[in-house]
Amino acid sequence: MILSDRDIIQALENGRIVIDPAPDLRTQLGSVSIDFCLGRTFMVFEHSRHSFIDPRQPQSIGDAMRTIEVEGGDPFIMQPGDFALASTVETLELPNDLLGRLEGRSSIARLGITVHSTAAVFEPGWIGTATMELSNLGRMPVALYPGMRICSFSFQTVSSPVMTPYRAKRNNKYAGQVTPRASRLAEEGREQEHLASSNGREQVGLGSR
């Protein structure tokens, strides 16, 4: 079940959903969603300095990205074909029986800007700002201003509270983030190597019995 505007207000009032800073419901609340605003920190790939990204090497991902802080009332200019990571101003905290869905605003999409590639679902127990995967699919540069309403969140109940909320997962990668965070895909490679090594030791142990 998707929460309506009255359900969202009630969830905010009783602390079931926590948004900080508190949103202006007059301008940010929709019929089944609430708008979030664009932060001032962006991460971009320096493609001219790196020939490729190796997802198994964390330094490859980190070294290929540069952080940009937009000051004052200046915009961040998205050139055609550009990709950037950005975060919301607001921090979102979800309970163990609600998931959040991030969607782009139609008015932003009509400029050629998408705000997420695949990462639209925020699991129950999420806490932190939302990292958006911004792309300019159009043919003209677009100015994006920190503080503008950039995306919206809707909320959906799950059949029962999850056994392990996102923030409590041992291997969660992004809980508690306050600025855009680069991909941590390399951690999965290390986990797989560790499991393979552990399994190998177990097999050796069994063979020596």
Return residue spans where pLDDT drops below 50 for at least 5 consecutive residues. Answer: none
Number of strands: 11
Shape: globular
Quote the beta fraction: 25-35%
Q: Under the CATH scheme, which architecture would be assigned?
A: Distorted Sandwich
Terminal residue distance? 55 Å
Provide a concise account of the structure shown.
The chain is α+β, with helices and mostly antiparallel strands and 209 residues long. It has helices spanning 5-13, 25-28, 58-63, 106-109, 186-207; strands at residues 18-20, 34-45, 65-69, 76-78, 83-93, 98-104, 113-114, 121-122, 127-136, 142-144, 149-157.
Task: Describe this structure as you would to a colleague.
It contains five helices and eleven strands, in the order H-E-H-E-H-E-E-E-E-H-E-E-E-E-E-H. It is an alpha+beta fold. It has a single domain, classed as Deoxyuridine 5'-Triphosphate Nucleotidohydrolase, Chain A. The longest helix has 22 residues, at 186-207. The model has no long low-confidence stretch (mean pLDDT 84).
